[in-house]
Amino acid sequence: MTGSEAVAAQVDARTAELATNLSALLQRVDAACLAAGRAPDSVRLLPVTKFFPAADVAILYRLGRREFGESREQEATAKVAELPNLVGQGAESDEGLPDVQWHMIGRLQRNKARVVARWAHAVHSVDSERLATALDTGAQTALDAGERTGPVRVLLQVSLDDDPSRGGVAPAELARLAEQVAGSKALRLSGLMAIPPLGAESDAAFARLATLHTMLLAEHPGATELSAGMSGDLESAIEHGSTCVRVGTALMGARPITSA
Ligand SMILES: *Cc1c(COP(=O)(O)O)cnc(C)c1O
């Protein structure tokens, strides 16, 4: 076997692995929707590709996926730039491929908001007024520079355990933050996100999140997204109204190191 044949064989093997995992996962999501009495197309699967190379994202792209979730700014920014070359299309803009939507799902520092605003279709982890302000400024700059064409969709990350170190706005502060984002020119309030507290019953956490989402929708009917559920708890999240499950491990395999 030549070197390039060996590389091609590796790509084929990874493609087969990801295709198998993907179809199992889509069946899991469908089954969970059925069990919850919800339409299968009411829940989107967001592949989380953090810690995996852009080559894997390219394989998922060829398998038909167009949305990807990343949690670390530097890693994501590099992948966004690399993907167009890997799938054989020149980048049209800093947003990367025109038909791909990148989601920032991890904790975001204010000084990274400008960079993320170049490529992020949505940010799931907005949890403070200062971060929202920085993201709005970054998004406006990106709009003015022609680096993006629409507002950054914002999901407010809610803390369900009152542990500030894990991120998320306290439920008592949610309404005020939602008002701010809804009034920001370069942002669009899309919904809520949460990660269940470590060691907690995910069912109870997702039930609480659903209540907060209902309250938010009463004030902001357009904020329909509920980003909840990961590899281990997506059935419970779907039962409680998730519209977007963020799945890493069950699709990509184990990460080399785990992240917060
Ligand atoms: C890594 C990550 C996920 C995916 O978690 P898995 O358990 O690997 O499916 C989902 N959401 C966020 C915010 C993450 O950082």
TrEMBL record:
UniProt keyword Repeat present: no
Entry keywords, A to Z: Pyridoxal phosphate
Coiled coil: none
Alanine racemase N-terminal domain: residues covered: 39-256
Pfam families named in the record: Ala_racemase_N
Record carries keyword Lyase: no
PTM sites of type N6-(pyridoxal phosphate)lysine: 50
Protein family per UniProt: Belongs to the pyridoxal phosphate-binding protein YggS/PROSC family.
Record protein name field: Pyridoxal phosphate homeostasis protein
